[in-house]
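Researcher: Let's continue the batch. This sequence belongs to succinate dehydrogenase, and it's 667 residues. Same format as the previous ones, please.
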Amino acid sequence: MTTLNSKVPQGPIKDKWTVYKENVDLVNPANKRNIDIIVVGTGLAGGSAAASLAELGYNVKAFAYQDSPRRAHSIAAQGGINAAKNYQNDGDSNYRLFYDTVKGGDYRSREANVFRLAEVSGAIIDQCVAQGVPFARDYGGLLDNRSFGGVLVSRTFYAKGQTGQQLLLGCYSAMNRQIARGKIEMFNRHEMLDVVKVDGKARGIIARDLITGEIERHSAHAVVIATGGYGNVYFLSTNAMGSNATAAWKIHKKGAFFANPCMTQIHPTCIPRSGDYQSKLTLMSESLRNDGRIWVPAKMEDAKAIQEGKLKPTAIAEEDRDYYLERRYPAYGNLVPRDVASRAAKERCDAGFGVNATGEAVYLDFASAINRYGSEQAKIKGIENASKEVVTELGEAVIEAKYGNLFQMYEKIVDDNPYKTPMMIYPATHYTMGGVWVDYNLMTTVDGLYCIGEANFSDHGANRLGASALMQGLADGYFVLPYTIGAYLADDIRTGKIPTDTKEFDEAEKEIKDKLEFFINNNGSHSVDYFHKKLGNIMWEKVGMARNEKHLKEAIKEIQEVREDFWKNVKVPGDLNEMNVELEKAGRVADFLELGELFAKDALNRNESCGGHFREEYVTEDGEALRDDENYAYVAAWEYTGKPSEAILHKEQLEFKDIELKTRSYK
Ligand SMILES: Cc1cc2nc3c(=O)[nH]c(=O)nc-3n(C[C@H](O)[C@H](O)[C@H](O)COP(=O)(O)OP(=O)(O)OC[C@H]3O[C@@H](n4cnc5c(N)ncnc54)[C@H](O)[C@@H]3O)c2cc1C
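Model: Same format as before. Here are the structure tokens for succinate dehydrogenase:
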């Protein structure tokens, strides 16, 4: 049986990574030319890894299901990327970033990994600036920062509301240099459908060419999975429509443990769902909470009148508004972490104070900020006794410069002007902290199989702080994996090319072809989406923002039933040897239907509330999450044994030597 070894180096936390780098085995440049690495996924994590590994001299084969790395889901990232540069001189440091991240994750992450993340964060910004990423700059031309939830400093670097897109362009240009040199062979429109193990080591993958339908074998000395998160298990989420868990789930079935699947982030500021035919939710970046104030009516009659469309929010007097985050969490106010803000919104809506027809929305209001900025601008411009109209105009211009594209997006979707009327927002599934278990080297429990970016479980514990996903993905790809993978590959310099005409590749390929043929020939009565929506509904209602034992047990049973129905009645039109989007979805939903069950099982196992995992049975007197450090200060790493219901739990006990384990408070 595989046992967990996190391989965290000995020594003081501040020295671990430095000493590791100084002592790690290196591969001589001439030998790197004889070593192949497969990188599956070319979002920010995989793209940065592919570019860096190729720059080092390895032969990289990179895979993505989109038509270009530029279309990875990372492009959607809006608000920014954290780094402990302390450019604002407001007291930031590596230790503080480390501390905020461990505390933000409700003390369920591995200290050594998080400290390393904080240590390399500054280098990411330097790297990206050198690539030409146009981070926002202040009046004097220096890099600007803003704040995100759960911190008391400004350490978030940003490019308007398009940070992910700009970072991805930088990363893609670094990849393109290597593609042009022939060091990266790029396989766009290819989907990895399984990993191939030889003598216990990951030695290749089976992929489908999504244009021709051809099944291909690819070999390498190591395989890196960078395929993003599994938030779409909920059907509706802020993730890209194609985001999926297939690669992560397939490697889980081949021996990679899956860690903390129940730790999922529900983001507080999303545009509320509008109806049953919706296929996607839209995020309004957390950066908006720098200036937006969140409120609901304080009086029930006002809430009812708003829900019935009889009252406008602008007609509600200041004293009749409940700025509930400022009221409950005076120290952090509107910038409490996401799990706290989401639960607080749900609490107000459940109590009947929601502000749209469904009662599932709260306001995000910019009126105070517009007034504040407008007055400041009037002073700067020397306008005496500026009228309210002038102040508003000047203030709106400042808000537009900071968040213009987000306001435009909101207006296009909701058909309401958020400069004049507060935005309506509600929590939605956004990010998955859980994922494939990895050790300090970012290696899974399968030799030679690595996992980076959102696909792995590391660093964020039970709740991710805003602007930390981009930091982690780029840390993994640019600065961590290029060191750690060498330690493994140093033993492979004499191995030579890995052949693909072996029984291991034959078997993996046959299994995939059989499954694809099954889908095409099944001729059932329901579309893939029919089953995906059913799964999503169970996940949201019973494994969503608040969970309890009864609902979790029901969810497990219901997911099993939907899965059984899926395999009997799914209908996939079209053919095998052509572009067939329904066929792609069928495979992904089949995997979600298994992952969803493990997710609920993990939530049922964790008899505590922590971060995004909120169990209604474990709550403090004032409604906050009640952790159980004595019994649950561990990473739950699940081993696949044939069915999700039979997965075996392995515990990685978490040690807190550099941060005191205490109740998280933002009051
Ligand atoms: C709307 C939105 C806004 C966000 N804003 C921020 C922000 O401001 N700051 C922040 O830090 N984080 C933000 N996040 C989170 C962050 O964007 C993601 O966590 C991060 O971009 C994930 O990067 P990744 O490289 O791990 O995966 P992704 O960008 O999801 O890339 C996955 C890659 O894997 C490929 N792939 C997947 N499956 C397969 C397969 N089977 N075969 C082949 N290829 C495959 C895809 O083609 C793609 O190339 C945001 C998330 C959302 C949803």
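Researcher: Any comment?
Model: The longest strand covers residues 423-432.
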